[in-house]
Amino acid sequence: PFRPATTLGRIRQWAGRRFGLKAGDIAEHVLQIAGSNDQPDMDTHVGTLVQHPRCAIVFDLVPAHRING
Questions:
Q1: pLDDT tens figures, 2-36
Q2: What pLDDT score was predicted for residue 54?
Q3: E strands, the chain, where?
Q4: pTM of the prediction?
Q5: How far apart are CA 33 and CA 59, in angstroms?
Q6: Alpha-carbon dihedral angle through residues 61, 33, 3, 17, given to the nearest 10 degrees
Q7: Between 20 and 30 A from 30 (CA), which of 42, 55, 59, 64?
């Protein structure tokens, strides 16, 4: 559980460590709302993405889109 004011960036750091990623590898991943293509900004507070009474959300930790060129 995370407080509503927790940013997605902080949750991403937690998830990356939980899955054993190195700091540089964590930076190359983003949180994506499960079952969608929505990747909210890392400064978004998790509380803005949920609604009462079910204050829960599921994310996937996915590689960030890379733009080459």
A1: 999 999 999 999 999 999 999 999 999 999 999 99
A2: 86
A3: 29-33, 59-63
A4: 0.87
A5: 4
A6: 0
A7: 55
Asked if 52 and 14 touch (Cβ cutoff 8 Å), the reply is no
Looking at the DSSP assignment, which residues form a beta bridge with residue 54?
none
Name every residue whose Cβ is closer than 8 Å to that of residue 26 and which is 6 or more positions away in sequence. Answer: 12, 13, 16, 17
Residue 69 pLDDT = 64
3-state secondary structure of 26: helix
Three-class SS state of 63: strand
Cβ-based burial of 43 (10 A; exposed 0-12, middle 13-18, buried ≥19): exposed
Determine the length of the chain: 69
CA-to-CA distance for 12 and 17, rounded, in angstroms?
Answer: 9
